[in-house]
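Bench notes, bay 3.
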Amino acid sequence: MKKYILFYAISLYFLSIRIAFSQTADTNRVNFFSSVISTNIKPQLFNDISFGGFDLLAANLQFSKDNSLQKVVFSPFKLFNDPSIFKDSRINFSQKNGISTFGIAYGFDNTNPYNKGKRVANVFMRLPPFPALTPRGAGESEDDFKKRQKKYLDDLALARIGFMQELAKNMISFTIGYNISLFELIGGTPVPIVSTGADNGLISNQFSTKSHNYSLDVNYGVNENFAINVGGVYKRQRLSAVEGQELADYYGFNTSITGRVIWLTPKDKLINNADYRSSLFIPSILIGLSLETLNATGNPKFYEDSISYQQIITPFIDFKISPKSQFRLSVPIKKYTKVDTDFVSTGPFLQYTIELANRN
């Protein structure tokens, strides 16, 4: 119970930090939502250790019969306006089926105007120059000047959108991360097992660490409407906290493709959408497909649920209503091999996501 309270306290703390800094954000450089690169790029097997997208804060709730998750990913360096090689680093906090996970990742996103890369400046320099608004003329009425000023601001918004659209082409990002997962009971007085079986007398809470998780992910966005993700995972994981449990080695792979298929706001009216003008967020529906695999090696006696191999194919639909209101519906198709038997199962899956970018 204490761990659940701590998790939600951390979540609220990060939300309060976002509110405090929203009034002091730099007005010259603005991150935009690369919403086509999904926060849920690892929807099933690795959702607890995924660092997702590159927004300031992403809170994620997932619900299913046997796979529930509460998760917050936070990019602390995006609270500051100074360029840094650590600008796209993130921290992960998650709770999944009673297991707490904490992680840190180093990343790089070539659309981030605050990182040390030169791509953003190069894209900006390729755009045609935009003249400054001239002062009100001597014979110009106040109404005429206001009309000219409004047209200028609209043209400036269009130019800014054009810049972000160019920046969204050939988006490339990568993330190298480490997560540690902890059992529900951490430390405390050793508790021996009392039973008539072979485990009689063994310490039930001998270990605090469930697993060590290392991951690498690479994302490529063709444009603001289509993206691909590929990643790998190496885990050292034990079955339980009981004395004598050994760490088994797991090797994982994940990939996904996502494409925008329906614009909830017509393209010709996007210019009037505040989220699109400020961050290139497009209210839309996306469809995608993900593949995740996990292969266990070592002594089968220590495999999780006696499973030696898992493969999950997940078709999904993302509803991106606004940055603060996003839903995913998916139907994972699971195939897994136990030590002696193969199984296939399917089931509906619901995810709810809140994302905040470092924007004005």
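Next record in the batch:
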Amino acid sequence: MKYLSFLFLLFFFYNCVADEEGGTGKTKEILQSNPSTPQKEYTREVPGEWKEIADDHLPKIEIDQNKSKKNVKIFVPGKTFSERHYIEAIGLMDERSRDIELQYFKRGDTPVANLTLDKKKYEINKIKVFVKCNLHDLWTSPILNSWMNNKPGDL
């Protein structure tokens, strides 16, 4: 009976993966060619098995240093989001992966978050922006580069 249950789950997983990218099977090809244990987080430098779709999941960051509230805008430029493939949450985390602030999303929502980061309370070089995809796990990017590169008022 356990063997039969395992086969059913395997069959179900195989069929779900085959269609999650709108019928292209792109994720299925990646999984079949590069099976691995999921990483704790994915980055531009270490995209793991999701290298081909990394640009659609990496958070983009805009900072307005003139504001003390809602001074960090985070968005995901992914072109493949749908009812079956979407962003669950966007947020800020500290060096211990504790949430500073986050925003949840539902299927079909546009993944854009306006969050607050108090630079007096946190060390900017230890803060990461994160994006959680329902299919492709947690993606992070350090906020420091964006903080240093934004001119006051950029947003």
